[in-house]
Amino acid sequence: MRLVVVGSQWGDEGKGKVTDFLGQKADVVVRSQGGNNAGHTIMIGNEKFALQTIPSGIFNPHIKNVLANGMVINPKEALKELNNLKARGIKDFQLYISNRAHVIMPYHILLDGGYESLKGDHKIGTTKKGIGPCYADKVNRIGIRIGDLIDKESFKEVLANTLPIKNMELKMLGLEPLDFDQIYNEYIAYGQELAPYVCDTSYLLNEEIANDANILFEGAQGSMLCLDHGSYPYVTSSSPTAASVPVNAGIAPKYIDHCVGICKAYTTRVGEGPFPTELKNDLGNLIREKGHEYGTVTHRPRRVGYLDLVVVNYAKRISGIDSLALMLFDVLTGIDELKICVGYKLGDKEINTIPATLREYAKCEPIYISLKPWHEDIADIREYNKLPQACKDYIETIEKYTGISVDIISVGPERTETIIRKDVFKK
Q1: Residue 376 domain-assigned?
Q2: What does the pLDDT read at residue 297?
């Protein structure tokens, strides 16, 4: 079976726990897009691991972990992450890096910060990890790929062609140009260290499909950060939807069997842009602290709001979500004023989709339904029928307004603190 996990909101939905949980049944776990601007937090026992580049199957020596061609990879940070895992005892793993993935270079990081500083009040709120400039070079056909990085002569040639252009951009932003020899010597060393992991991952994945392997495609970011369908321009630089997986992994669309949407029990957002259900009050602060809503990568406080089912339904449309995993459900325990947004009011109209322009989206007012709170501790519950009725009402309201079954419910951060209503990952 080939299963895709996607974020159904603005990212940070708790995908790390689900990919780790589902990954126990996988033969292969794949990251297909994005870079080290994404963060997956995984709890194993009392140990907390924050992954930014490496797939969550890395903790199981029997799982093949793939960084696919649609990714942009910072080799320095990827190696640092690997070395940190090794230092913590994670030494027996299988890792495969696409020779067609693009390389985040030091000038990408400098340009990311430089361009952001020019935008003034219109900043996107990027992580300044160089992701956007790297994807821009890919589109402009002046990028450097992993296959180049591990070949000394090829790397020398493409860097010589690219660096003058990037140095010109740096000068235009008032930044110092970079030295060819310094970059070449540093990055060719990274390439040699990564070389044993590099291969044609599209070929590998198609071989695994032919062998009927269980493959998990883990999402980075969320559907509302999709470059094409998200709240543009406050989006990431790639598409985190299920539709993007085939091209970013080098497989045919017909091989995707099921899509799980990861949905936080409330809504959060990092960075700028419209957020109709945002709670700019004590309740929002309370949920933020209870849910530890601070960025895995940036540590920035996340904006917090009520669950927005217009957003979830939009994600369902663009990704074909078959099941929902409801995350951080336990955070809502003891929250006396519970609401769910089931539509928007735009002027004198009621709408159930996301407007294309920020101007219109900023005018949307949420249409809420109120629900009864619960105060019982649900962390030890493992069967749906044993949840308090108010919990079941909340879940069944989500199912009613989205038409998607909530098959996984997280009642705590650890792998075991999960209610499974349906096995979504089986052959």
Answers
A1: yes
A2: 62
